[in-house]
Specification:
The protein has helices spanning about 1-10, 15-35, 40-50, 60-65, 65-85, 90-110. The protein has about 110 residues and is an all-alpha fold.
Length: about 110
């Protein structure tokens, strides 16, 4: 049952494309942010946004890598699920397939 759920999540091509695009563009995004910080209007706006309690005192440059860091933790999480899934079942096969997919995404597009 869990295998079907996580496989459905990681088989979504829109999700995979979003992960890939986000990770590929992260470095450029950080550079654009740095360049725009030179503008006083943008810097003031960003400071106001970052003072919001929802940001938990984190700056945008610290928050931008979070999705990529989360994706890199998925193989560890899914491998633990696989470890405790009953062997030789359909669920186990689906968890294994999901693990292969997320490892492929991470190895192709995310530099550790």
């Amino acid at each position: 049952m869990i295998g079907s759920c996580i496989l459905k999540f990681f088989s979504n091509s829109e999700y995979q494309n979003a992960i890939v695009k986000y990770c590929i563009n992260l470095t450029d995004s950080l550079m654009v942010l740095k360049e725009n910080m030179r503008t006083t209007d943008f810097a003031a706006f960003l400071l106001e946004c970052e003072s919001n309690p929802l940001c938990r005192r984190k700056h945008l440059k610290e928050l931008l890598p979070n999705p990529m860091q989360r994706v890199t933790k998925y193989p560890l999480l899914i491998s633990q699920i696989y470890k405790y899934t009953e062997p030789d079942t359909e669920d186990c096969e689906k968890v294994a397939e999901c693990l292969d997919r997320i490892r492929t995404i991470c190895s192709k597009y995310i530099i550790f």
